[in-house]
User: Which sequence fits this backbone?
């Protein structure tokens, strides 16, 4: 089976995981990550969401409103709530799936503390519009959510550098991975020092047991994405038997992983160092695959293709369709898993009917609602074989 995602792992990550640890493993990863992102500071966390919680706390935000997209990963508003702030949701725009920045001024109040600008699916947020908002409201912090995009660029400008800080996720579904983990980057020396101090106070050291769990998880990933094995796992996943392991949220709860207050382990940092060396080739391959799909699928009326944007990093390739379930079933019969990414509009979830605040009415999320039901994920991972991509294209063309 061709999986919907596949981390770019080989023997080098396994060797790194088995290498005797050094005291400075995490620091070396932070320094290398900062260099790759072109920033002065990079600070590790066990998850990107943990980084966001402490980032908001380090900014001194409490009982404030934090603006974020209605169509994004639900862990973002979860982190806002855990930091004792309230998410305010803004609808998306269809052309690139990002938050509609034209609507942001409508929800800004005296209580607004920050805006989280997500470059979803690797599409860079419009920095021109974001700059205009920041000029008008200079006291509102801009935070870049680069969990999908990493070093995406808007008209040659690195997205991650525009704002007080940027957050990243590093699990196996991201552009690059450290098994689990998250990162915050910033060019603000004073803020970096404050965030590091807060992290070291709030987070417990990673124990040997955590390193062992991460190693076992890494070892399990290798056979998991082998075609025959993945076919079995996919069947178990669709049956609901793996929800405990693969579903990252409960619609009725605002929660966090049990170890969200434990520091990144050294083994994760060593794997991350190997992945950083692959980063450029990973992004280059994804850009080539996005262009391949665009060239070969543009004439299919049933698909509304995502845009090809200069500077995008294409964490996912996400066409829109009229009947998602029908297409998913069709491809499963051909041993191709398409899947979807974000199958919810956050303000409509049970856990946010009370938690969120919004100046908008229920119709204001109509684009986010639409995207949550009509997007599919065509495999675009870096090591997908040409014949596999050609097979996917052939199946799309078949009626």
Assistant:
């Amino acid at each position: 089976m061709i999986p919907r995602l596949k981390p770019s792992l080989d023997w080098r990550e396994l060797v790194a995981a088995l290498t005797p640890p050094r005291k400075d493993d995490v620091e070396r990863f932070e320094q290398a990550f900062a260099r790759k992102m072109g920033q002065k500071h990079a600070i590790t966390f066990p998850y990107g969401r943990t980084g966001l919680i402490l980032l908001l706390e380090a900014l001194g935000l409490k009982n404030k409103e934090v603006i974020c997209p209605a169509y994004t990963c639900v862990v973002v508003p979860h982190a806002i709530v855990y930091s004792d702030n309230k998410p305010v949701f803004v609808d998306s725009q269809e052309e690139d799936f990002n938050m509609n920045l034209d609507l942001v001024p409508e929800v800004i109040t005296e209580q607004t503390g920050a805006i989280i600008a997500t470059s979803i699916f690797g599409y860079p947020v419009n920095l021109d519009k974001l700059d205009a908002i920041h000029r008008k409201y200079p006291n509102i912090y801009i935070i870049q959510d680069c969990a999908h995009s990493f070093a995406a660029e808007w008209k040659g400008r690195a997205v991650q550098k525009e704002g007080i800080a940027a957050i990243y996720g590093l699990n196996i579904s991201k552009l690059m991975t450290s098994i689990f983990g998250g990162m915050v980057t910033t060019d603000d020396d004073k803020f970096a020092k404050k965030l590091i101090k807060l992290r070291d106070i709030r987070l417990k050291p990673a124990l040997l047991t955590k390193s062992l769990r991460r190693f076992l998880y890494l070892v399990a990933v290798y056979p998991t994405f082998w075609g025959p094995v993945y076919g079995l796992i996919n069947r178990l996943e669709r049956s609901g038997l793996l929800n405990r392991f693969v579903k990252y949220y409960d619609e009725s709860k605002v929660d966090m992983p049990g170890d969200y207050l434990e520091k990144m382990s050294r083994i994760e940092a060593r794997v991350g160092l190997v992945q950083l060396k692959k980063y450029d080739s990973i992004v280059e391959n994804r850009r080539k695959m996005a262009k391949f799909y665009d060239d070969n699928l543009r004439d299919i009326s049933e698909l509304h293709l995502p845009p090809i944007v200069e500077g995008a990093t294409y964490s996912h390739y996400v066409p829109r369709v009229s009947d998602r379930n029908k297409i998913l079933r069709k491809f499963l019969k051909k041993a191709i898993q398409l899947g979807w990414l974000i199958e919810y509009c956050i303000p409509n979830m049970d856990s946010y009917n009370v938690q969120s605040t919004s100046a908008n009415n229920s119709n204001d999320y109509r684009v986010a609602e639409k995207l949550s039901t009509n997007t599919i994920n065509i495999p675009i991972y870096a090591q997908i074989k040409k014949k596999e991509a050609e097979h996917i294209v052939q199946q799309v063309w078949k009626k």
